[in-house]
Amino acid sequence: MTSDEPVRRGGREAQRRRTRKAIVDAAVRLSAVGATPSIDEIAAAADVSRRTIYMHFPTLDHLLIDATAGALNEPPVEAALADPALADDPVARVDALIRTLLEYSPQSLPLGRRLIRLTVDPAPNDAQERAAPRRTRRRVEWLEQACEPLRSTLSEERFELLISALTIVVGWEAQIALRDVRGLDPQAEQEAITWAARTLVEAAIKEK
Fold first, then answer.
1. Which residues are CB-contacts of 105 (< 8 A; sequence separation ≥ 6)?
2. N or C: which terminus of the chain carries fewer CB neighbours within 10 A?
3. Angle at 188 between CA 99 and CA 204, to 5 degrees
4. Which run of H or of E encompasses 106?
5. What are phi and psi of 104, to 5 degrees?
6. Cα–Cα distances in Å, from 197 out to 10, 24, 36, 112, 149?
7. Burial of 22 (0-12, 13-18, 19+ CB in 10 A)
8. Largest Cα span, the chain
9. DSSP 84
10. Residue-level pLDDT at 126
11. What per-residue string of b and e applies to 132-148 under the rule 16 or more CB within 10 Å gives b?
């Protein structure tokens, strides 16, 4: 393996994320006018081909659900993470992220259930494509933003491990387990998710 191969792989992954975001953003803009856009309309607005869209989203329904969830959650989450009072406090930032996501849960969780049904089965492509993320990295990016104060104090490996662990306890899958398996009400659900996330972040802080 040559030294520039990891760089090339990282560049391809970054381009993949940018393309996926452009597609989702185009779907959001077109949906905002009140009509359901077609694949052709979204492709034109994102300046990509139909084939490119289907490489990222196997169905129009998958794309539109993802776009709707993003349009619902992104503005309040970005505002919460931009609060200067929380700038240097990763625990408070993760708390704020969880609180904001759960505040919009009545609208977003039904979308999450539908999206999980669409993405839980293996992709019909080769093993490399199945290994790639099948959903937008939105949650991961928010968790990275929330934990940004720890990036300079943890090793890259430990930081990535923290984000992976938080991905398990913050999101629709955790909510579904707590509601469907544990039978928790929204308040108890928030307490459980917040406690689990705080425990992980505080453990990472102790490792500094």
1. 175, 186
2. N
3. 60
4. helix 105-119
5. -95, 10
6. 28, 28, 37, 20, 16
7. middle
8. 53
9. G
10. 47
11. eebbbebbbebbbebbe
pTM (predicted TM-score): 0.79
pLDDT at residue 5 above 70?
no
Q: What is the pLDDT of residues 119-146, one digit of tens each?
A: 777 655 544 444 455 677 889 999 999 9
What DSSP state is assigned to residue 23? H
Round to whole Å and give the CA distance between 124 and 13.
20
Q: What's the CA gap between 160 and 84, in Å, rounded?
A: 24
One DSSP character per residue, 148-204 reads GGGTTTS-HHHHHHHHHHHHHHSSHHHHHIIIIIS---HHHHHHHHHHHHHHHHHHH
Model confidence over 155-190: pLDDT tens digits?
999 999 999 999 999 999 999 999 999 999 999 999
**Which ranges in 2-104 belong to alpha helices (H)?**
5-31, 39-46, 50-56, 60-81, 90-103
d(CA 32, CA 100): 22
54, 66, 52, 55: which is closest to 136 by C-alpha?
A: 66
Q: What is the arithmetic mean of pLDDT over 94-114?
A: 94
Q: How far apart are CA 24 and CA 62, in angstroms?
A: 10
Sequence-distant (≥ 6) Cβ neighbours of residue 93 within 8 angstroms:
81, 86, 145, 146, 147, 148, 149
Residue with the bigger pLDDT between 7 and 81: it is: 81
Interatomic CA distance for residues 155 and 111, integer angstroms: 35
